[in-house]
Design a protein that fits this description.
Oligomer: single chain
CATH superfamily of the largest domain: PPM-type phosphatase domain
CATH topology of the largest domain: Phosphatase 2c, domain 1
Structural class: alpha+beta
Number of domains: 2
Strand content: 25-35%
Distance between the termini: 59 Å
Shape: globular
Helix content: 25-40%
Mean pLDDT: 91
Radius of gyration: 22 Å
Strand order of the largest sheet: 3-2-1-6-5-4
Low-confidence stretches: 1-10
Number of helices: 12
CATH class of the largest domain: Alpha Beta
Length: 401
């Protein structure tokens, strides 16, 4: 590593090819779980005197600095800070003089994982030419390294995580993902004490397959049902079974493992990315909302099958033709049912209005999901009695005439 005197005088960035080679060298040389050494090298090749990564917490409310042991220093709130602005917008921000600080977003496949802070004592007036390449390489290395250590997970905790939430977060896929045809984002609350709500997805050749579920009960028993349901759906999906077969498989699993008085509501869906045809089953769940051309069209209709675990038939497999730019919001009842201190429900009308506003403002799927959830939290003064989960799908594929 560089000495302190080397760091004080460093101001020249390294050419792209050498920068990538240097990062790959250090990634292969350091222990599997080491992240901080890679961050130091990224700062070096970008000509900065110091680099630091801030990690988004589970609730997506703050950004916490990471060192080799875990969280360090005070967190930066996402609302109202420069680091939070970079995280929310995905833009690079430069501030200050002597030193100058550059903030760059860290994301992978659309998933926002945090922010990189770079400190410069001599600023050349514009970001380094190799910034994008080096940051992208840094993200890929972080994603691969964080699997081997608890340091990343410790840094994500703004407060203690319950046992049930620990299990639920390990079950989840990345919260966000985007391709040329679709962008999607999910979020769970209360993030540190989530119970039986969950979602899952996979982007397979030509198709997005996903589900949102809500297991009856609370705490670890509900999480165990949710885990059983999600893994049953994954098994069916990976076996290329139909939606009806997936519904029946989860119905059987819940009944056999938990008894006939327990159940899981949910929606199982498949979106053909080329044609825009959405096919789905509604298992006793609130109907999803559709926003088209900046206006709320209404709820997508599907006659409900009874919740999985209660032994009922599939009543309807619904289809919906989507158009380019359509935005569909799937959610659990914990989103619309919270009460304010005055006893007013959050309600579906308020949810639809906020969804339309975010759409008209051009807010990304990722940031829209976060903002919607923050509005639910603010409405209820963070005193919800039920889990609240949403899953947002933006269809950006071919226009269908």
């Amino acid at each position: 590593m560089k000495s302190d005197s080397d760091e004080r005088t460093r101001n020249d960035e390294v050419p792209v090819g050498h920068a990538v080679a240097r990062l790959l060298d250090i990634a292969g040389a350091v222990p599997p779980g080491s992240i901080s050494d890679v961050i130091d090298v990224a700062a070096e090749v970008l000509g900065a005197v110091r680099g630091r990564v801030y990690v988004a917490d589970y609730a997506l409310r703050c950004l916490q600095a990471l060192d080799r042991h875990g969280p360090v220093g005070d967190p930066h709130l996402i609302e109202g800070t420069l680091a939070g602005r970079v995280f929310a917008t995905g833009e690079v921000v430069v501030s200050g003089e002597d030193p100058t600080t550059l903030w760059a977003p860290l994301s992978e496949g659309g998933e926002r994982i945090g922010v990189l802070e770079l400190t410069y004592h001599e600023w050349k007036g514009e970001p380094p030419a190799n910034l994008v390449v080096v940051v992208n390489m840094l993200v890929l290395i972080i994603v691969s390294k964080r699997r081997y250590t608890d340091v990343w997970h410790r840094t994500r905790r703004a407060q203690p995580l319950s046992d049930a939430a620990e299990a639920q977060w390990d079950l989840l896929p990345p919260l966000t993902c985007s391709t040329d045809e679709v962008a999607l984002s999910g979020i769970l609350e209360p993030a540190y004490d989530i119970g039986g709500d969950s979602f899952d997805y996979a982007i397979n050749p030509g198709r997005l397959e996903f589900a949102i579920v809500d297991a009856t009960g609370s705490g670890m028993p509900a999480v165990m049902m949710s885990i059983a349901a999600i893994n049953g759906l994954r098994n069916s999906r990976r076996e290329e079974a139909s939606l009806e077969s997936a519904y029946r498989q989860v119905d059987r699993i819940i009944a056999e493992q938990f008894g006939h008085s327990f159940y899981v509501t949910g929606q199982l869906a498949s979106l053909d990315l080329a044609s825009g045809v959405l096919t789905w089953i509604n298992a006793g769940h609130p109907l999803p909302m559709l926003v088209r051309d900046g206006s709320y069209v209404g709820e997508l209709q599907c006659r409900p099958s009874i919740p999985m675990g209660l032994g009922g038939p599939v009543v309807e497999i619904a289809t919906q033709q989507l158009q380019r730019g359509d935005r569909i919001l799937f959610y659990t009842d914990g989103i619309t049912e919270p009460l304010s201190s005055e006893g007013e429900r959050f309600g579906s009308d308020r949810l639809a209005d906020l969804l339309v506003r975010a759409t008209l403002d051009g807010v990304s799927a990722t940031e829209t999901a976060r903002r919607l959830c923050m509005n639910v939290i603010a409405h209820s003064d963070d005193k919800r009695k039920d889990d609240a989960t949403l899953f947002l799908v933006d269809y950006t594929g071919p226009n269908i005439s």
